[in-house]
Amino acid sequence: MGTARFLLLLFLAAIGEFQTTPQVYVPPPPEQPLPYSHKRHLALGLECKTCHAMPEPGNAATLPSTATCMTCHTQVKTESPFIQQLAAAHAAQKPIDWKRVYRLPDFVFFSHKVHVSGRDAATCDVCHGNVRDMDVMQRVKDISMGACIECHQAKQAPARCDTCHDPR
């Protein structure tokens, strides 16, 4: 019986039907108020920080304002109904209600500045996946506490509880 089970598992592994490591749940992308292709925009040479600014103290990356988008879209694709919606929101000084794809719980302190600067700086794709190839942004990387601790240990970064959690 043991040999038969081993052979079955070996066969399933060979054809890709059996996973030895747990799969991380990848939620569907949230429905955004306007379509946006990271792939198309990054192919133009834009960088993450072009649209996702990190105002001081640099702990949080922002979602782009309509003014950021309108830097180009006053002249680019102005005939698009979606760009016309963007322009109308900008003229009315109303923000676009972009839906966050990655969100950490409120009890977790995370500083983008700490992670993207210094000797062991991470690139955006380490946590957000290969955004450069995404037409629709969705969460593809595990941002659980376990994944963060694993990364901290691999980079020999502090992994004490109070690194990310307020000890109060």
Question: What features would you describe in this structure?
Answer:
The chain is an all-alpha fold and 168 residues long. It has one domain (33-60, 79-168). Helix content is 39%, strand content 0%. The chain is built from nine helices and no strands. Helix 4 packs across helix 5 (81-91). The radius of gyration is 21 Å and the shape is globular. The termini are far apart. The mean pLDDT is 88.
Main features:
single chain; 168 residues; mainly alpha; 9 helices; globular
Helices and strands in order, then pairings?
Layout: H1 2-14, H2 38-43, H3 48-51, H4 66-73, H5 81-91, H6 112-116, H7 124-128, H8 145-154, H9 161-164
Helix pairs in contact: 4-5
Reading the helices and strands in chain order gives HHHHHHHHH
Number of strands: 0
**Helix share of residues?**
25-40%
Strand proportion, as a percent range, falls in under 5%
Question: Kindly state the mean pLDDT as a whole number?
Answer: 88
Question: How would you describe the shape?
Answer: globular
Largest sheet: none
- Catalogue the unreliable spans: none
Work out the count of structural domains: 1
